[in-house]
Every structure is written in structure tokens, then in C-alpha cells.
Amino acid sequence: MSIVIVGGGLAGASAVEELRGQGYDGDLVLLGAEPYLPYHRPPLSKDVLLGDKEPDATDVHDQGWYDEHSVDVHTGTAVTAIDRDRRVVVTGSGEVGYDTLLLATGSEPRRLDVDGADVAYLRTRDDARALRARLLERPRLLIVGAGWIGLEAAAAARAAGCQVTVVEPQSQPLLGVMGERVGRMFADLHREHGVDLRLGTSFDGVPPVPADLVLVAVGAVPRVDLAREAGLAVANGVLVDATLRTSDPAVLAAGDIAAHDHPRLGRIRVEHWDNAIEQGKVAARNLLGADEAYERTPYFFTDQYDLGMEYFGHVPSEHLDDVVVRGDLDGRRAVVFWHRGGRVLGGMHVNEWDAADELRELVGQTVDPAQLVRRTT
Ligand code: FAD
After folding, report:
1. Which residues, at least 6 apart from 341, have a Cβ–Cβ distance to it below 8 Å?
2. By residue range, what is the domain housing residue 233?
3. How does pLDDT run across 331-352, given as a tens digit for each residue?
4. Is residue 78 in contact with ligand 1, taking CB distance under 6 Å?
5. Are residues 91 and 239 part of one domain?
6. Are residues 229 and 364 in the same domain?
7. Could you tell me if the CB of 276 is within 6 A of ligand 1?
8. Cα(32)–Cα(9) distance, rounded to whole angstroms?
9. Nearest atom of ligand 1 to the alpha carbon of 301
10. Would the CB of 272 count as within 6 Å of ligand 1?
């Protein structure tokens, strides 16, 4: 039996670990395009940009672990095609046969044309290393996009003493995931720390302020070309059923690329660290013949300045303003719930770390909103 994993990111690494943990002792090949072993990306826009962690210090496992677990890892090896009839994947140095295959090719930054300034993106270890070096030169930094990566980078750039402008077309940062009220809290946070945050401002390719460096942080797109060219069903991600199987049952997909048919939430594609780890595990068990649905509630975290936040759930856009707050959101110690007629769709805490277990438990339950405000954690 031979299992091949395409994509040396977190989902791929998690699957490998679970396969060996489940006692699978057949051939196991991990093919990754980057010149590095799989690593964690969240620190890249936080500790690494702040200079608190070396870019190379975020590996999931070192080479010794892969050797000990007989995992045949090939870094710097992009898969260029999948021949599903012959069950082989094609790389620059030859073909690798599989019985079952996991696609975990992740996502990449959406790109924009920019005039008159250096342009940066933040996805890889090399991007983070280069951006950190630039921040130390204290450039006038323009960040396009007030999403998670843009905001985290803004916080790091302010810590490095840069002049930072952020442009965002929406009326608040993170509007599409957090809604107006919580978005406003993030806007206040950044303005208090000296960021020139320009909301309702579309970027047309020309920096609206003098800028030495433009960080484009306008979201990511799933890397689905390989899957599409192999004839798999694709639509904003590789379409997978509840068990993470693609339209070809011998091929599974996990992590950022998986447009998953979640048993409770419907079709969703989640670009989060926890999702990559946990889908990697379920995919691994299903590669071995199990038939387990992936049912986990999405989870996300961020750190910006002295704000730490964890978020659980998935809130459709029409309910983003159905918010109940316990505590002091403006003072940035609070627990927030999004609900639909009392059914909790999502919840987050801001600097209230003890609330995490309660939030995970409450998402999906129906609770009187007045009680959500009162309940003590
Ligand atoms: P990826 O990590 O993108 O890995 C996919 C790998 O596959 C890449 O190395 C790629 O080069 C490789 N690949 C692609 N095509 C091929 C091919 N044809 N052949 C071989 N290899 C290929 N999430 C959170 O929950 N909290 C956070 O705070 C957070 N912070 C983040 C900060 C940054 C800067 C970034 C970029 C992401 C952050 N995320 C965060 C998101 C999280 O890191 C991703 O959801 C996660 O990395 C997805 O893992 P993945 O394995 O699906 O994809």
C-alpha cells in the first residue's frame, strides 16, 4: 500500500503524523514545493515579524522525526500533474505511484498590481524573513487590506517603529467575518496604536500616501489548478464530501483547499490553522479506509498588540450584527456571541482566556441571549 501526500504544509504534516499514529506501516511519501519541511504559518505574522522568533523555528517536526517514522519527504518538489487512471503523481524528477492520495496544496495570496513602491506579500517563511528585514529599516508602510494578516502585520510594523497606513474598502476592518461592532473594536485598537486606518477606501494600484513598501493583504485563493487539471470537481476549493473525499474516492483533500460539505454548517472552506491540523487527521483515518465525517466547529485565534482573541463557529453574513456582548468590548475584555434567534452561531473572547471551553460548548446550542450576557465563565 502506498499513500502520497501532495503539499508540505500543516494539513499534510498532520496527516502524516496521524497515519503513523494509527499504525499504518506502508509507504508514505510527502511532496512539498517549498524548500522547507512543513511549518506553522501563524507565527510568521506575529512572533517572527516582531523579531521574537526566528523564521526557521516554526517546523512541525524536524528531519529526524520524518526519518524515525519512515516518511519519505521531498522538499522543493512540486507536483505538476496527477494521472488518476494510472494512479501516479508527476514531479520534475519522475512519477510516484499511489493507492490513495491526499491533496493539501493550501492557498496563496491574492495579488494586485501596485505602482511606484516595493510590493510584499506574506505567506511563506521567506516572505516573513524578507518583510521583517524591511520593517527594521522603518519604511513608510502601506498595507492594503484590513483582514487578519494586514492587521497583525500593522501591529508588528508599529512595534518596529514604522509609519503605517492601512487602506480597506469596507466600513470596518474584518467586517465580513466579525460584523460592524467587533470590527469597530479592531479599528479603535489600531488607531490607538498610531495606525492611519483609512476605511471605505478602495485601492486602485496607486498608493494614496507616500509609501516605501506596500504589503498586499487582500486574502488568499486556494491552489486548485492541480486538482482541476486532474478532472476533480472544483469550485472555490476542491469539492469534498463530509468525509473529505473528492469526486474521486481514492483522492482526499484537506486544509485551506478543501471546500467541505460540513454536516452542520453546509459547504464551507476554512483557512485556519486548527482546521488544517484536524482535517489532516480525519483525512488520514479515511485514507486508511474509515468513513468519518469531519464535524469540528471552526476555530481561529489572533494576537495584535496586547489583544489576544479566540473565535469559534461560523456566522453567515446576515447574522454578523446579531451580537450579544458580555463584559467590556471597548475595554477589550469581553466575550461576544453571534446568534440566530438564540441559537449560538459563533462566539469569541477578547483577553478572557478562561471562556474558551464555554464558547466551544455553546456554539450550536440555543440559549436565551439575556442569559448569555449574564452567565459567568
Ligand atoms: P499551506 O500551509 O498553504 O501549505 C500548503 C503547502 O503545499 C505549501 O507549502 C505549498 O508550497 C505546497 N504546495 C502547493 N502546491 C503544491 C504542489 N503542486 N506540489 C507540492 N506542494 C505544493 N490561521 C489561524 O487559525 N490563526 C492564525 O493566527 C493564522 N495566522 C496566519 C498567518 C499567516 C502569515 C498565514 C499565511 C496564515 C495564517 N493562518 C492562521 C492560516 C493557516 O496558517 C493556514 O490555514 C494553514 O497554513 C493551512 O494549511 P494547509 O496545509 O492547508 O496549507
Report:
1. 366
2. 2-108+220-287
3. 999 999 999 988 999 999 999 9
4. yes
5. yes
6. no
7. yes
8. 7
9. 26
10. yes
